[in-house]
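Here is an idea for our session: we take a single protein and study its fold together. Start from the sequence, derive the backbone structure tokens from it, and show both lines together. Once you have written the record down, we can walk along the chain together:
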Amino acid sequence: MDVTTARERLESMLADIDRSIAVLRGDPVAVRDRSAADAGADLTDADRVQAMLAVATAQRRSVVDAIKRVEEGAYGCCVDCAKPVPEGRLEARPEAARCVQCQSKRERRR
């Protein structure tokens, strides 16, 4: 993938993620008289929103880092071993920072 296309895709992804984060951070629903069951459902919904917000924030960080790599001329090179990230991987995940082998090693360590 050429860097112009990569930059366009990454900037589009960043805009989408920012919109999602804005929606997830929307104003909380005003507290009303509720039953205990409603309060439990609200807590579950709040937990779900927090989890989605955490995922979106992490993805945003990955996209911003990828845009920096484009600007630095390092896009498409693995941040661990400096070998090229396969084209198919960048097509599927333009924000990918690592080659498949290094990403697998990183995930095994978690």
About this structure: The radius of gyration is 19 Å. Residues 28-33 have pLDDT under 50 and may be disordered. The longest helix spans residues 36-72. Helices lie at 3-24, 36-72, 87-92, 100-109.
